[in-house]
Design goal:
The chain is α/β, with parallel strands linked by helices. The protein has one domain: Rossmann fold, CATH 3.40.50.300. It is 52% helix and 11% strand. Bound molecules: shikimate-3-phosphate (S3P). Shikimate-3-phosphate is lined by residues 27, 31, 50, 61, 95-97, 134-136.
């Protein structure tokens, strides 16, 4: 029998592709690496807000901080994210400070699904300590900076639609955890429409 006419089974990822998925959280938690893999798994485009800010400014993030100052970076970050949220659904990794801005946070919450990737500060300190390119860590103990950021930023991150705890596992494990959380969120949303 020729089953060309049989209805094709629905793609279980389709519902997850309706809105942009924005990853928020502290530096080093894997927003870009998990985001890139999540986008591939869901067959969505991937955008990295830090890279987009660099492209718009024609400078690296350390250069923007050094030559223009942090307020100029924050201003550019806010405008770039607002522009990206107008694009068709994609996975968007944000810099650690983006969701702390009240305007950006409100925009993300209204237009996208925000996912807070959360991990132990010790793990993050080990990760960021190995890399250059983060001006907020310049001449500072990473653990001190991360503690300050956790205290100042967790209330804002806590406003994300979803929180996914990631440990020191392969990024693929975090991707699966995010997909599970997104499915749960969608199911809860569709149930609430019948209440
Ligand atoms: C920042 C985090 C960085 C980058 C900038 C500021 C922050 O992004 O946006 O250096 O304020 O936490 P990552 O979170 O990708 O490191």
């Amino acid at each position: 029998m020729n089953d060309d006419t049989a209805p094709s089974s629905p793609d279980p990822r389709a519902a997850l592709r309706l809105k942009t998925i924005v990853l928020v959280g502290l530096m080093g938690v894997g927003k870009s690496s998990v985001g890139r893999r999540l986008a591939a798994a869901l067959d969505l485009p991937f955008r990295d807000a830090d890279n987009e800010v660099e492209a718009a400014a024609g400078r690296s993030i350390p250069e923007i901080f050094a030559e223009m100052g942090e307020p100029a970076f924050r201003d550019g970050e806010r405008r770039v994210i607002a522009r990206l949220l107008e694009e068709p659904p994609h996975v968007l990794a944000t810099g650690g400070g983006a969701f702390v801005n009240a305007e950006t946070r409100a925009l993300i919450k209204s237009k996208a699904v925000a996912v807070w990737l959360k991990a132990d500060l010790e793990l993050l300190a080990r990760r960021v300590g190995r890399k250059e390119g983060r001006p907020l860590l310049k001449n500072r103990d990473p653990m001190d900076v991360l503690r300050e950021h956790a205290a100042a930023r967790y209330p804002a991150y806590g406003e994300a639609h979803l929180t996914v705890e990631t440990g020191d596992t392969a990024h693929g494990v975090a991707v699966e955890a995010v997909i599970q959380a997104l499915r749960g969120h969608l199911q809860a949303q569709s149930k609430s429409e019948f209440k």
